[in-house]
From TrEMBL:
Gene: LOC107268076
Species annotation: Cephus cinctus (Wheat stem sawfly)
Source organism, top-level taxon: Eukaryota
Alphabetized UniProt keyword annotations: Membrane, Transmembrane, Transmembrane helix
Keyword Repressor among record annotations: no
Protein name per UniProt: Transmembrane protein 184C
InterPro entries for the chain: Ostalpha/TMEM184C
Amino acid sequence: MASLCGRWRLWILPVLTGLYALLIIILVPILLANSIKNGFKKQDQGALVGGAFVLLALPIAFYEIVQHMIHYTQPRLQKYIIRILWMVPIYAVNAWLGLVYPEGSIYVDSLRECYEAYVIYNFMMYLLAYLDADNHLEHRLELSPQVHHMFPLCCLPDWEMGREFVHMCKHGILQYTAVRPISTLISFICELNGVYGEGEFRGDIAFPYMIAFNNLSQFVAMYCLVLFYRANAAALEPMKPVGKFLCIKAVVFFSFFQGVIIAMLVYFDVISSIFDTDNTDDIRNISSKLQDFLICIEMFLAAVAHHYSFSYKPYVNLAQNQAWWDAFRAMWDVSDVHNDMKEHLGVVGSSLSRRIRGRSGYQQSWGSATERTSLLSEAPLTTAKSAPACSFLGYNTADSGQILNSIDDSRGFVDLSPDMQDNNHNINT
């Protein structure tokens, strides 16, 4: 038994393949029988076609996940890749369940929406882990050309290259990781109270407001991700980042706007006749079914794209393989997410507090500030260049000289005026 477990890399894929084939043999006849029993309506046709694409997507995604676990040679990078690869199975199964059980789509969609933010977070952490392997990312950025803001935020002051730039990009992405679960919880509560109104655009329901809120938060996250890529394009070139960026942006960004566009088209009766429903005014079910059907198809394409963009092959024979349970444990261990979220909430809370108290309170509290980038090494606070970003909500490091003076004051190194120095000299004399 011990030798069999030790050779798990040889038999794990055949065993999983056999189990998956058994699942298909059992599941497909049941679905066909139910469809024939229901008269083979358009809803059943959509579930079957969408299910076929899901059955094609899952083995591709699981194959890549298992191969990364077999060749788990760079944990600091691969744990993020495995988390990203789980996006296809979660999205695909979630969308298919929405087709089969449309009345419960609001509940199963909550998992997909939260994992959407989780994927963006993990992609940013993957880039940081790749770039900061030698703990010199901030120093390299300080020597890099200034990256300016893009349209439509080109009027904002530039983020100083170095610690401030990494700080702002990281927390610009982390805010979406916090906002998305909160907005999903609010939507869930509104649905339970009958005031959510998915797919409807009226002022007395929560749906249009939640769409606008999520849209703004997601835009900030994707903007920070693109800005971070622009600043590190040359350093990221060996990892071929373009395909990886397109995979994340296409699945996360475009699927969100796809749902908004479909909801608007259905609401204005442009495509309301695609699905058979008992009530043609049931806008929520029509838009939700169409969105889920398209996601089932798109996840097959995403699985193929992930297979090439996040391939396991660069990690083969790079070092001694670790035990498979290390990869499995790292895949589900979210302690790093918990720590980064605590840091982000602390940054936002301290920034709001300084806004309320004003600049003087901000200067006094700087000596005990805990704002930092957890994945990056701490640099000594000696110059204005190495000072961390003053605030995620808008303070600029141009005031770092005043801040350093206030630190010196608080430590007792008070600048004396010439008159006071003369008096002090007379006293000593």
